[in-house]
Amino acid sequence: MRKKEGDKANEILNAAASVFARDGFDKAQVSAIATSAGVGTGSIYLYFGGKGEILQSLFSRFWDRLAVEMTKLETPDPLLRLNDQLGVFFEQLASDRDFARTYLRDHHRFLEFADPPSKRGYVVCVEFGRRAFLEVVAHQDRTGHAPSPASTDLSQAILFGGVRASLEFLLNNDTPAEIVKTRMLSMAMAGILAATRDPQP
Amino acid sequence: MRKKEGDKANEILNAAASVFARDGFDKAQVSAIATSAGVGTGSIYLYFGGKGEILQSLFSRFWDRLAVEMTKLETPDPLLRLNDQLGVFFEQLASDRDFARTYLRDHHRFLEFADPPSKRGYVVCVEFGRRAFLEVVAHQDRTGHAPSPASTDLSQAILFGGVRASLEFLLNNDTPAEIVKTRMLSMAMAGILAATRDPQP
Amino acid sequence: MRKKEGDKANEILNAAASVFARDGFDKAQVSAIATSAGVGTGSIYLYFGGKGEILQSLFSRFWDRLAVEMTKLETPDPLLRLNDQLGVFFEQLASDRDFARTYLRDHHRFLEFADPPSKRGYVVCVEFGRRAFLEVVAHQDRTGHAPSPASTDLSQAILFGGVRASLEFLLNNDTPAEIVKTRMLSMAMAGILAATRDPQP
Amino acid sequence: MRKKEGDKANEILNAAASVFARDGFDKAQVSAIATSAGVGTGSIYLYFGGKGEILQSLFSRFWDRLAVEMTKLETPDPLLRLNDQLGVFFEQLASDRDFARTYLRDHHRFLEFADPPSKRGYVVCVEFGRRAFLEVVAHQDRTGHAPSPASTDLSQAILFGGVRASLEFLLNNDTPAEIVKTRMLSMAMAGILAATRDPQP
DNA sequence: CATGAATGAGGTTTCATTCAT
DNA sequence: TATGAATGAAACCTCATTCAT
After folding, report:
1. Which domains, ranges and CATH numbers included, belong to chain A?
2. Residue C199 and residue C194: Cα distance in Å, rounded?
């Protein structure tokens, strides 16, 4: 974001989400975003440094909001908390299909090119997940030895992949979100238990 | 367009995989692919109808080859077969990191835009998976009633998402492929059991 | 447009001189001039019709002021008067380096596009010079025949070119203005004598 | 210049000279240059890196050619040689009015932004002039002491200014080139003698 | 079959100017 | 009077595709 905070910037981001969803980031035209947001093309540049910065801000906003939701989850049981976290993640995306589509296609750009400050929310969310995951491990594993970070990250990544895939399914089928979510969580929980039960390599 | 059979086309596809991996499909330049393949820019168009068709052929070739591998898997136990299928899928991608990166970034284009004939191999692979999955269900579920197709597809999609994510992890970390694969399969198997054990909605 | 008299307009012109000096007329931004002048962007248009009119006014102001100085020069000897005129011209520019830089880069626009009324001062200055020049000729040339106007204009133009070049040198070197001026006048006087001594073509 | 030497590049430069002459560098459109050169817009970029590089090449070509001409001038008498040098300089510009106009308006950009290699010809020409000037001084000044470099540069700059101004006059009037040149040289020679006769400051 | 020079449509970005406050 | 947020036209440059050789 450049100069003005506030509503207009958010409207541009919403418009961008829908245009990105339809055309993908690379093919998306700034002028289309402007039209969709009901502003002049040039106005985009009053709020964002360029097309890339729009994408960055869009994801940054998403993760920041998600981080807030994550913070509210205080389920003591780590497994249930992980369940809730994945559920919130899924729901946030499921509730905004335009953004969800953009997430599926272009989130890797955010990870690759966004500058660190804009990744704050993302890092926070990942950290929440990791902590819950480690607690599950500690709970399971009476011997007390911690799993290697790589091992945790890997398992966590696979869970994310499951959420991602369930979301993709949701977007391309008529199955109700609730059913998709349930199935996803069911498989995820089983996966977590398998991952934390296994001897760490 | 008219695909001249032979080596040159395959070399172009290999070159394309590396260029797509580095730049992504949208930013990739046809001339860069040509240079990387050691042919003139114009020659590309003797073998492919355009940039889009290169992508299509690249994925088509991948799925065709994978379909061949899938056919070889005749493990009688459906769960083990599913395990082997996911393993083969993972290994094929893990063994060609350039293509893997392209798969992660641009496979959705293949699904969205490729013409049906070029999807043959893909459809075959999916079908192999679905059949194994259904057998697992049938095996578990003594009542004999089939799960809804949607339910099967969803579970399958989530499994794919897990493979996908584990692959992404592999590309971005130093963890050995074997370890990633083992963990992925471990979680996948658990997920499958959970998915097939649950009452179908 | 309607030039509100007063200080603000002059401040804007001063600001413009510095911005033009730094960026050149074409690259100069109106908003930069406004900022430099300490007024809002829109206010510029209360005093001037547009960017072009700013340039026009800037040069117009310069020539008007110079015309006033020229009027004060009443040296009877025409050669000495010419010497003084060139000196005053040089000094006025040397004393405002921002404007001088703009003069060197963009004065041609003034000559090409300014409307006649704003060229009043310029015309007056040129006329002063021409008159002195003709007197020198008349003084030299006992036969009394006047040189052709073209011939006079040409010689005068060349003198202006010398002043211009000496000014450019001044801006790009550390040589003191006094030395530059002396050398310039020395060469100019020699040039004038040569020009007026020669048989007119 | 980028890839191909040869005719096309030169034609583009000629077209650029005419467009720059008409519109000035900043307002000149690359597409207009392309049209004027009879090539596609994109072709420009096969030969030049951009609009700026066209300007650079245009001036570079001019100075390189002039340097060749300068080399041919072997008049032993330094004053006459200087006379010839200024004459050649004038004639080269007078013979290509489009370029001359561009020279008058935009040569400062070349000096400010061109990279050193492209200034080679320019430096050579200036050096030729300086050497002749110093010889004149040495010839005049029997005491043998050299004038300060700054002093030489200044005088030389003023001479260039005279040529420049005479050229401008030529472009804006109907006076024959020969007459303008003669008058210019007459004044220049007188100026040189004045400059070299004066005690060096 | 093979080439690569040539093309030109199209997108991002800038900035002079306006006008509601 | 004064402001500065908003506008949208315009231009540089890229690159997929073609075609003469």
Report:
1. 53-197 (1.10.357.10)
2. 10
